[in-house]
Amino acid sequence: MRMKRCGLILFALMLCFSAVAQTSLAADAEAKAKAGTTVEKTTSRVKKPTSIKLNNASCITVPGKKFTLKATVSPKSAAKAKVVWKSSNEKVAKVSRKGRVTIVGIGTARITAKTENGKKAVCKIESRQYIKSSSKLSIGTPDGAKDYKIYYQANYRTNSGGMYYRTYGCVVTAVAIIASACKDKDGEIHSYTPKDIHEGSEKSKYSEKYAVKKMGNNSELSRWYDRAAISLRTASTILKDIGIKNKVVYTFTKAKAKKEIRKQLKQGKPVIVKANNNMHNGIRLTNEHHALVLVGIDSKDQIIYLDPGRTWPYTLKLSTLVDYYMTPASGNYKSAYMTDFASSKSAGGYILIE
Predict the structure, then answer these.
(1) Residues 99-135: pLDDT tens digits?
(2) Residue 13 lies in a domain
(3) How many domains is the chain partitioned into structurally?
């Protein structure tokens, strides 16, 4: 009888412990559920964006340029809000999901950054064929944007032959402009000044006695210069030494020159030409044979060129340049220096940068 009572008591105790355990588990579950609810409520309290601002409200640029717009969302508690980017004109500018802008054409576009609740900011894009600052010309090309440094040809009209060591001619300056904008054989762009070209490549290649050359009794030459100007052949050799491939065209027909130069510029590749001092419609491009750097061409066949004798870019019809201001070389046009600078001999032709 006692054994039976003990068994009943043990059974009753087990039921009590089981009930307590179940109550404890239920309490834990309820506590966790409440904690989860609290987290959800906290998350739901994150504020919505009240404003959005871009690091640039407007931009003037050229085709081929790339840059990133950065959006700042307020308040700080909404800083991680989703931002959607959109371009109003993808023929001019494209934008990625992260605000990376690529300029692909000429014209205008609006880049909009918008939050999910409708707050937005806009950057106005104006893309031009070229932009000039005091020291640089940026131009859009099919191969990407190119930045040309604008070097001004120093005034070397002096009676002292030694002054050439401190001054630089138009061809040397043109070479420096090309060398500072174009990739070398390793795909790199280096910075060169006219002084770098003269003191380095020209003098090491042809020695000092040619770099400073007296012009004798030639009154036309000695009136302006105390040294000989380098030829296109020398310019081509210096560019190749630097690692920039090119081809010199000494003799040509007008049709051939127009076709080659137009094709070159449309591909975004520059050209060095020798312009003569002919008069056309009462206008001379230069008072003597002079190097020009052609850097672009527009849809109306207008070339954009840099003149080492001046500090700003110019435009001119390609046909006008070739028909009236360019002549093929003649005579000893493959000499290192132009020994007959006052005439068309050895002064004509052009260099195609490859």
Answers:
(1) 999 999 999 999 999 999 999 999 999 999 899 877 8
(2) no
(3) 2
Please indicate, yes or no, whether residues 81 and 225 belong to a single structural domain of this protein: no
Tens-digit pLDDT profile for residues 302-351? 999 998 877 778 889 999 999 999 888 776 666 666 544 444 455 688 99
Q: pLDDT of 51-71, one tens digit each?
A: 999 999 999 999 999 999 999
Residues 82 and 223 in one domain: no
pTM: 0.73
141: buried, middle or exposed (CB in 10 Å: 19+, 13-18, 0-12)?
A: buried
CA gap 174, 131 in Å, rounded: 19
